[in-house]
Each structure stands twice: as structure tokens, then as C-alpha cells.
Amino acid sequence: MQDARFVRKAFDGIAGRYVLTNHVLSMGIDILWRRATASLVADWSPKWVLDLATGSGDLAATIQRVCPEAKVLGGDFCPPMMEHAKQRGLESLVAADGMCLPFRDGSWDVVTVAFGLRNMASWPQALREMARVIKPTGRLVVLDFSLPRSRWFRSAYVWYLERVMPKVAGLITGKRDAYEYLCKSIERFPSGEAMVNLMMENGFHSAHARPLSGGIATLYWAIK
Questions:
Q1: pTM of the predicted model, to two decimals?
Q2: CA–CA gap between residue 115 and residue 102 (Å, rounded)
Q3: What residues contact 158, with CB distance under 8 A and at least 6 apart?
Q4: Most-buried pick from 22, 29, 50, 188 (CB within 10 A)?
Q5: What CA dihedral angle connects 32, 38, 44 and 46, to 10 degrees?
Q6: Which residue stretches of the chain have pLDDT < 50?
Q7: What is the pLDDT of residues 92-139, one digit of tens each?
Q8: Is residue 99 within 8 Å of residue 76, measured between CB atoms?
């Protein structure tokens, strides 16, 4: 179980520099990851898309650009993050906790969550709640950090997570403790086959995983 109160406080504290920090730490690759996610969603021509843990709205805005006919709604449980999403031009927003969504059963064609499932209090419960609000045969898309399969690359990446990322992020945001938590959460979060299995055990089938950038992030999708 993740500490939801700590997560909310952490994101409240870094909201103002969240986007900049992401771009610096990933050297801009996170933009390409979101484009790949939006491209996958566009292939399904959805009419109703819910982007959970939308944060500053980057993924929701990217999906809206490639799916201009779709209704794309961003949901987040952190008001300061949503305020920054509004400032960045995202108008369709709702306060929504992934553990208890304020939507009817079977409301959405696609639910997406980028770098957010990892921070929810219970991954299985969150997946089941997402399955509840997705239409029959609708899809869930998860984009998140993962650990590379290559032993040497994994070792180098873990070193970066533990030794470099919190220091750099701390200098940018002044909230090193928030990023120490976030970096540790990446190591704990199930990835690859483990995440595919978790999705299939909690309301989904035909789950797939696509490693990105050598496996430092992975794009997952599954059918309800």
C-alpha cells in the first residue's frame, strides 16, 4: 500500500516545477513516450477518453490533439496539479481519486494513466475501479517507469534513480524527499510480465507490454 496522504502532499509541493523537472530528468524523452501513448489511443478512434492522474495535463492534451473528435477529460486528486493543467490550456478537468471514481459503470471507451498508477494506494483496487468505469471491450492504457531487463543497464539505471535523480530534482523543486519517494516507488512497481499479470487478474484480458527507451518506461494496454 502506498501512502496516499504523503503522495498528495508531495505533488502539492512540486506542482509548480513538475513539468520542467520531468523534461530535465528524462532529457525530453517523456514527450516521445506520451506521443506513443496518444498514437496507440488514436488507433482505436475512441469517443470518450478519461486520463487519470492527469497532473499537468500533458498526456490528455496530447491525446486531444490526435483525437480531435473525442471528449478527453483529465482527472486528478491534487488541486495544485490541476490548476497548472488549466494554465496550460486543458479545460476539461475533474477532481477524481483513482481509488473511487465519480463515474457510472461502463462510461468510458478508454482510460489512460501515465506515471500515476504507481502512486495509487492499492494497484489491484485501482485497476478494478478503472475496469468498472470502462465500457465492455473498452481499453485501459498505462504508461509508467519500469526497470530494464538488461542487467548492466538496470544497474546503471538504479544507480541513477538512487544517486542522481533525487539530487537534481531536489535542486529544481526544493523537494528532494518527494523525489526520493518517487524513485524508490519505481523500483517497487511491478513491470513487464508482472504488470501484465496484474492487469489480467483485476478486470482485464489481452494485456500487452511495449518497453520504451530500453525498458526505462513501458507502455501497457489491455481490454476490459
A1: 0.87
A2: 21
A3: 147, 187
A4: 50
A5: 180
A6: 13-17, 20
A7: 999 999 999 999 999 999 999 999 999 899 999 999 999 999 999 999
A8: no
Q: Say which residue the cell 498528495 belongs to.
A: 8
What pLDDT score was predicted for residue 160?
Answer: 83
Q: What is the structure's pLDDT at 25?
A: 53
Query: Rounded to whole angstroms, how far apart are CA atoms 62 and 34?
Result: 7
Which residues, 6 or more positions from 108, have their beta carbon under 8 angstroms from its beta carbon? Answer: 48, 49, 50, 133, 134, 135, 138
Cβ density class 122-161: b for 16+ within 10 Å, e for less = ebeebbebbbebbbeebbbbbbbbbbbeeeeebeebeeeb
* Number of structural domains found in the chain: 1
pLDDT single digits (tens) 160-174:
878 877 776 666 666
CATH code, domain with 180 = 3.40.50.150
Tell me which residue range forms the domain holding 139: 4-223
